[in-house]
Amino acid sequence: MEKFDSVLKYEEKAIFGLRALYRKFGYTQYKMSKFEEYELYVRNKDFLVSDNVITFTDTNGRLMALKPDVTLSIIKNGSDADGVVQKVYYNENVYRVSRGSHQYKEIMQVGLECIGAIDSYCISEVLGLAAESLLAVTEECVLDVSHLGIVSACIDRLNPDEETRAAILKCVGEKNTHGILSLCREDGLDEEKALSLVSLISTYGAADTVLPQLRALCAEDAAALACVEELAQVVGALGNTRASEVVRIDFSVTSDMNYYNGIVFRGFVRGIPTGILSGGQYDKLMAKMGRKSGAIGFAVYLDLLERLEDDDAKFDVDTVILYTVDDDMDALRGTVRMLTDAGQTVMAQKAVPEKLRYKQLLRLCGKGVEIVETHA
User: Which CATH number fits domain 2-307: 3.90.230.10, 2.40.50.140, 3.30.930.10, 3.30.200.100?
Assistant: First the structure.
């Protein structure tokens, strides 16, 4: 594979690395059709990253969609079996509005799903693989982890109506402490409990620092404290690994509570302002789709990796050699072969193409070459 590194894009290299990582842990590849019935997506549109779905009418009159998501298909086509966990990864094109370009794109997406008799081992394994996925992209990364049970318990203590609850949850995701306090004052909700929620979402950092604070904050709430201990168990299971070093507890990581529950997480890498990885437990989605088992998984948004380019990506080619029809073609072929054998990419041209990015420009002179221009 190393010999192909020079021709693979950044995201293509990431795909091969991630697939190899997931296979090491027994995840098998899931393959699906490009199309699904549109009804599958319209019933679960809130679960999708974007509800903009490309549709068409099939020859039999059914309304079909170019798949914007893989998880829904995996759930739909799976079945429950006592004590069994289905472990799959996917490497599929999805069709939706790109977060990077804000236009419809065919996006290569990689992810995995762990479905069935989910336990703490499964959750910690998936969390660890999410962290390792980020590390496979770059060492400069962080995996923010939250527990919706803790967030939900703290909001429940305020006893807000559904509209206020949704507004508060939006503020939690934005770390908008002022907004939370304003909403609670407007609705006459308990100020002390509001301050407790503010303290929760202001808590951020490594597990060994944050967990003692959470235990103190949730000491009088048995449901929240049980969730804290579950979070501690799952994160603690990562041990002293590379994965554990990039994990941070951050309660601003929220997801739609109509679909998600328990552990949720989002991954970030240096150089990209939005998360490139998102996942968590989605038992509620499973139940909504008629499944009785639990599930946890994540997806890596490879379209965002287009913003991460190595140094060679600054150039289309290493060397351009200019020649004329009167030059010695054997000398030209020999020079091109010599440079390519040395590991360079080389383009022979009579004139430099417009907008071509190159490291150096050479001109063929007899049996040799002269340097016309170089770029660092």
Answer: 3.30.930.10
